Amino acid sequence: MVSNIQNDGFSEFRIRTLKTVLFILLCLPALSLGYAAFSNSFADPIKELTLTTGEWALRILLMTLAITPLRRLTGWGKLARLRRMLGLFSFFYMISHFLIYLVLDRYLYWPDIIVDFTERPYIIAGLTCLLACAPLAITSTDGMIRRLGGRMWKRLHKLVYLAAIAAVLHFLWLVKSDLTEPLIYGTILFFLFFDRIRTNNIWPSFSEKLFRTTAAPN
Questions:
Q1: Domain of 72?
Q2: Which of 37, 64, 72, 166 could make an S-S bridge to 86, C-beta 3.0–4.6 Å?
Q3: pLDDT in tens, 19-61
């Protein structure tokens, strides 16, 4: 009998079990928030719902970005199969965060919403993150990957880095007193970016192109 265990040591059963456990864990914040909201456990429900959904969206987005370095460090290639689910859960919490703001905080009063979208930097950063992630969620299916082609799909999904930067800025500009948590997320994002630049030789190739451009004769 041929074993279905690959070189990274993950059998199909193990990866499916891991995905199931991860799915349950990622649902827990939403279930906890729903229970607390309906049982009147929050002193300020709108604030708690808005902040908690936003924080989980950012946390899961950073987890999504951490999959690639984690694969490389552990040699567990099948961890890549968790990336789609993480990304979609992050988008789910983003959408929840946005709808709570629109419906419960602003009561769909568009004059105030438009002012927020145009004059408040932290709102603009949050909207940028949401708009950057929307096409990533839409094109996350196997069918969309085939339609776009692998190369185009990978280029499009680099928007995740813009989304992550915007998300961290959104949180940083929103917090008015204790900056500890957003700075922790910013530090994690910095190291994830640094790892990508280091492992993909992005900086050397950019430096070479810049040198050729400046050194080229007129």
A1: 12-189
A2: 64
A3: 999 999 999 999 999 999 888 888 889 999 999 999 999 999 9
Those residues whose C-beta lies under 8 Å from the C-beta of residue 217, and which sit 6 or more positions away, are: none
| Distances 43 to 27, 40, 83, 176 between C-alpha atoms, Å | 23, 8, 35, 20
Going by the DSSP 8-state scheme, the letter that residue 7 receives in this structure is T
What is the tally of structural domains in the chain?
A: 1
* 179 within a domain of the structure (yes/no): yes
Model pTM score = 0.86
Alpha helices, DSSP H, located in 79-158: 83-99, 110-119, 121-138, 142-148, 150-156
Q: Angle at Cα 94 formed by Cα 69 and Cα 26, nearest 5°?
A: 60
CB 166, CB 54: distance < 8 Å? no
The CB-side HSE value for 71 (13 A sphere, CA atoms) comes to 16
HSE value, Cβ hemisphere, 13 Å, CA-based, for 51: 11
* Domain annotation covers residue 197: no
Q: Which tokens is 169 given? A: 């800025």
Q: Which of 121, 134, 133 is nearest to 169 (CA)?
A: 121
> Residue 7: inside a domain, yes or no?
no
Q: Which residue, 126, 31, 28, 145, is CA-closest to 83?
A: 145
Query: Kind and range of the H or E element at 171?
Result: helix 159-174
